[in-house]
Amino acid sequence: MSEQPQQPNQPPGYGYPNAGATGGQSGPYGYPQGGQQPPGAYPPPGYQQGGAYQGYAADPNAPYGYDPYGRPLSDKSKIVAGILQLFLGSFGIGRFYVGSVGVGVAQLLTCGGLGFWALIDGIMYLVSNDRTDAQGRILRG
User: Fold this and answer.
1) C-alpha distances in angstroms, 9 versus 5, 14, 68, 72?
2) Least C-beta-crowded within 10 Å: which of 65, 78, 102, 107?
3) What is the enclosing helix (H) or strand (E) of 123?
4) Number of independent structural domains in the chain
């Protein structure tokens, strides 16, 4: 049998049998066999070189895992924060929930910006994917 011709701009071993970077058979999905990673592949966040990979929960900085971009997740929920902010935002309860005490006190003293600040803040909690808690971790969905 003849090998398939190499496609332009494609590294050897990707999808072509017997053309792996190790000189042997290609593994699943065209990656070289023998536990080697393809060029440019990185281990997932939380992986420690030289040790066995323990999974995401082993990272003490992110006990609730990571989002798809590798940022640690918070133990707080953005849905709970948004609903608290919509209904009790005049008292700053949503901000106290996520740990933003200073902003919570400001909302408490201004009655949530006469309700406008609390309403906009509650909507932003519900629709935004980049809201963080006081430790800088992304709020879970």
Assistant:
1) 12, 11, 28, 35
2) 102
3) helix 116-127
4) 1
Residue 22 lies in a domain: no
CA dihedral 41, 45, 51, 54 (to 10 degrees): -120
Residue 121 lies in a domain: yes
Q: How far apart are CA 137 and CA 73, in angstroms?
A: 5
Specify if 29 maps to a domain: no
Task: Name the E strands within 8-112.
Answer: 73-77
Nearest alpha carbon to residue 55 among 45, 69, 41: 45
Asked if residues 92 and 105 have their Cβ atoms less than 8 Å apart, the reply is yes
- From first to last of its 141 residues, the chain has per-residue pLDDT tens of 555 555 555 555 445 444 444 455 555 555 555 555 555 555 555 555 555 545 444 566 677 888 888 888 889 999 999 999 999 988 999 999 999 999 999 999 998 888 899 999 999 999 988 899 988 889 988
Q: How far is 97 from 106, CA to CA, in rounded Å?
A: 14
Strands (E), 22-96: 73-77
Domain that holds residue 106: 73-140
